[in-house]
């Protein structure tokens, strides 16, 4: 188990706004230029709990619970396809009164964030991507696993299985190694998976997978060279789900990108918080276009 820990400080108070007609919760701390932290699957703003305090000494930090996750609403009337989710980031920025911001994003958040910076380059001052499938996809075992989720979620008889109580146990077992390596404690993992204990949460979860696609996104890869903002690719090298090659391609193709390697698994902000926080602070020091 890792001993790389920093002082978390007091947990920030959650606030609420409305995006696409439904409730979005977010943590906010600090003052100054804004910094948005986007989490991944199956997390919430708590994925950044070690970073929010130190980063808020320099920025106004906003860490949302993406719609469907954490304490935000789970509205199955909302589409979860890629284009809808990326465009939803812009509407979230509007709801939060953000014109231009630094953006750090992990996992699913990085997948969406990459599309967002390509569509709205004028709204991102700096970009950090952490262990995300980004423009590519997962390693073969995880591509098969998540692909099975998406296929099953689109077929009614199998979709009902994704909305049954055993799905909580399946995910708890599947994420147990992150308890062993110190990424999560039991309380944090329970909070991430609590929605799978409720019928409404499981229905939304099946809805999410019905809109998701595991295929490679060549249109994202083709536009990497257009990203002009200072970019940091911060990567846990022991990730079984996403190849290090994805990180290397991001760093090679994005013109003003640096690659930072961390001896960590997929949930690196939680497993190696001090290293990740230090890397993000250095990233914030990089000059950005006015």
UniProtKB/TrEMBL annotation:
InterPro entries, alphabetized: AB_hydrolase_1 (IPR000073), AB_hydrolase_fold (IPR029058), AB_hydrolase_sf (IPR050266), Epox_hydrolase-like (IPR000639)
A Pfam family annotated for this UniProt entry: Abhydrolase_1
Record-level GO cellular component terms: membrane
One MF term in the entry's GO annotations: hydrolase activity
Keyword annotations: Hydrolase
Location of the AB hydrolase-1 domain: 34-273
UniProt-listed PANTHER family: HYDROLASE, PUTATIVE (AFU_ORTHOLOGUE AFUA_2G14860)-RELATED, MONOACYLGLYCEROL LIPASE
The name this protein goes by in its record: Alpha/beta hydrolase
